[in-house]
From TrEMBL:
InterPro entries: MFS_trans_sf. This is Sugar transporter protein. Keywords: Membrane, Sugar transport, Transmembrane, Transmembrane helix, Transport. The keyword Transport applies. Signal peptide: none annotated. The keyword Transport applies. Pfam families: MFS_2. The chain crosses the membrane at residues 6-28, 90-111, 123-144, 164-184.
Length: 233
């Protein structure tokens, strides 16, 4: 049995599992909001629904934040280049990844308490500021503060005692820089729910479908821009 058979078998198995869970979810899950009656659906036209979505300021603020947040994926696309050409081995990225994700299991359960105390908006803003400061400090300090080389010897940055120290430094800094990501993801889900609640409070109509459609459009637009940025980088 070759690798092609292994990949094909794994793909078929995952397809069966995904199909089974989707069917189970279809019959087991219930709508949180009851479906509107025919009379309620006729109370507002499609044009009015679109106008309400356009006037939903929290939605566009959240979509704008998600749009700029998508540019972070450009850095992820250059990550392999960094590990290979700046540290000398892609394995260094694997080693760092074994540790950078561990604190997220601690931060995520704490996030609801932060939201309860400071609010979802303030928590997300604070997390973004914290991440910005951490990335700025890492940029100023550099990736090899315990010994740097030039020319062909730059691949030796992570060999020997100074290389181990550099690797430990990068792992710790990437862990600190990544901590706000989990907080922002939780806040994003909470704020997305607030967008639906705002629409219902402001216009008396909870039009989740149209809001989700506009949100998906901005997400695709952000992905298109970031994909183009990856090509340029």
């Amino acid at each position: 049995m070759g690798m092609q058979d292994v990949y094909s078998g794994f793909a078929v198995a995952m397809m069966v599992i995904a199909g089974g869970t989707a069917i189970y979810g279809f019959f087991a899950m219930r709508e949180r909001v009851p479906l509107a009656s025919r009379e309620q659906m006729q109370e507002i036209s499609v044009l009015d629904s679109f106008k309400n979505a356009v006037k939903n300021k929290p939605m566009f603020i959240l979509m704008l934040a998600n749009f700029f947040n998508g540019f972070k994926s450009v850095g992820a696309s250059t990550e392999s280049f960094f590990w290979l050409h700046n540290t000398g081995s892609l394995a260094n990225g694997t080693i760092a990844g074994l540790f950078t994700g561990i604190p997220n299991f601690i931060i995520t359960p704490i996030t609801p308490k932060l939201i309860h105390k400071f609010g979802a908006r303030n928590t997300a803003i604070g997390a973004g500021i914290f991440g910005g400061i951490a990335y700025t400090l890492m940029f100023i300090i550099g990736y090899a503060p315990f010994g740097s080389y030039s020319g062909a010897e730059r691949y030796k940055n992570f060999s020997g005692g100074s290389g181990v120290a550099n690797m430990v430094y990068i792992t710790i800094m990437l862990t600190i820089c990544g901590l706000p990501n989990c907080i922002i993801r939780v806040c994003q889900a909470v704020l997305q729910g607030d967008v639906y609640d705002y629409s219902e409070w402001k216009y008396g109509v909870r039009n989740e479908g149209l809001v989700a459609t506009v949100s998906n459009y901005f997400t695709k637009l952000a992905n298109a821009v970031t994909d183009f940025s990856r090509v340029l980088s």
